[in-house]
Amino acid sequence: MVDLYPRSACDNFTVSESHGEPSYTRPGLRTSIISQGMVCTGRQECEIPAGGFVSDARTLNITTSSASDIFALISSVTNITFEEILTGNITTTSWPIANGTFGYVGFTPNHRCTSGVLNGCNSDIPDGTVIEACTPYVGSGAVTGKQPALSGTVAVITTSRDIAMSLTCNPANTTDPSQAPNNACMSTAAATTSEGPAATQTSSGAASLAGRGQGSGFSAIFIGAIGFFLGCL
After folding, report:
1. How far apart are CA 35 and CA 18, in angstroms?
2. Residue 194 included in any domain
3. Cα–Cα 20 to 30 A to 179, which of 120, 124, 135, 168?
């Protein structure tokens, strides 16, 4: 990222259509863990429940103390609402994990982005600075209660045995959205394998929304999130 001095503000933003459109979508920069870790050592495929509360925020490709002003300027030109923070619930669903593999399930939000050039700026942002602004957004799924359905992708993430065993619970499994992620779930205590009480799972490859039991656009409601996991044969 470009490091800039404080007190930045600009008067003009010109949209670049280098992507063919004024706005475009791409995966967000952060993947949230939404399951325990799984060490699948049984003879058959393992399954693990995944889901819960996730949050994501707007981003800029520059560092400035006047980020809010920059977002407001870009929003006034593009009509894009840049969410300071957006929280949603991913429906709890079971995901298959291949035997002999280690990992967990993650959620990567989609971002709506626009890029262009800033002008009429104070001295800390040179005129002609190219900027990209992105935001998470609500998907096409249903909204249940007060929690929206975030647009994004759920996938099984392959990792090392040590990392899988250190994820002793699901960080997204909280009763209060503000408490997610629960960092206490990342522990040095060894999680058990699929031959006993287990931790989060993984598979030998990445799964997407076509995964078992996952709905289109994954309408986001996390019902009675529980920290149990399924033992494997």
Report:
1. 38
2. no
3. 135
